[in-house]
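Hi V.,

You were right to ask for the full record rather than a summary. Here it is.
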Amino acid sequence: MTIRSRAAMAELLRLTQSGQLAKATARIQLALSGMAAPATSPSSSAAGDIIDLKPARISLNAREQSPTPATTTSPKGAPPVDHANRFEERTYKGPEGSLAYHLYVPADAGNNMPLVVMLHGCTQSPEDFARGTGMNQLADEMGFIVVYPRQSRSANAQQCWNWFRPGDQQRDRGEPALIAGVTRQVIAEQGADPDRVYVAGLSAGGAAAAIMGQTYPDIYAAIGIHSGLACGSARDLPSALMAMRNGSSGTSAVKGAPFVPVITFHGDRDSTVHEANSRIIVAAASTASGRSLKTRQETGKSIQGTYTRETSVDSEGRIMLEQWTVHGAGHAWSGGHSTGSYTDPSGPDASREMLRFFFTHKLARAKSRVG
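Predicted structure:
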């Protein structure tokens, strides 16, 4: 651990032990952004503060432009991502509370379509995340439904999912219960295929996706984690910072949880969430599989860099685990659109690759309820 990291840890411990939880939370939110906390006012984090470093391979000109309005056509000429009556904001209300979400349904949608749940990163919104990942255009092209739960500022000042809180890491409690409630509501209302439901996220959203896979393996057939952390990586603010900087040292598997196929993406120059977390996610999933998996490795080139792809296949040759390391990339969605925040258009297309992986997996009906 660096001197700077030790100092940050000491400060988090001091704030936590003294009961200054708001200030401690502000510190961890700034850590998620890769920024140093202000010297004079650790709790004065503006709602518009970014939480991710600018991707290393994106030109300043592209990154400094104002976010493209939601109705703007993408650079590839795809339809607007929030076409009237197709990209709607709705609300889930249940015994555990309420959660707003955006729903995208292709114009030619029918019954039994796959459903993909997308969990945005800190300071992002469903609209922004849809633009950056291009998932709505892919939904039109490939035929699936997309839902984007929205974290509120009342739950987290920078709209981060609270992946490091014990109460938000358990089935039927906190944020996992709300996200699961949204998922079930959309399945019922849209007639989605309950055997083909998937969840993916970026950064804090990636960590939340990992939690959803572990706590609701009876809902999600596979998970995608981009620049995130494993379930159980942290139990409080200090351990969250430690995991982000160095990788989690603890177990990430929920006892007795069935195996859920997982695909990860991570830049090897990510200074916000260390790439070791991706390796930890895959190692934990491999152990949970209880199978003898054979690992294969290949390298390839994207627009401005290279990547390494490792796949773990079972005895029948099915890919059960997949890990992408994008060389030279920072904390950003690989292959994303520059119209959204925290994207690296020059990398391999994480959205397409996740969908390709997802659609080879269906929910095993033998999976039992956890907890």
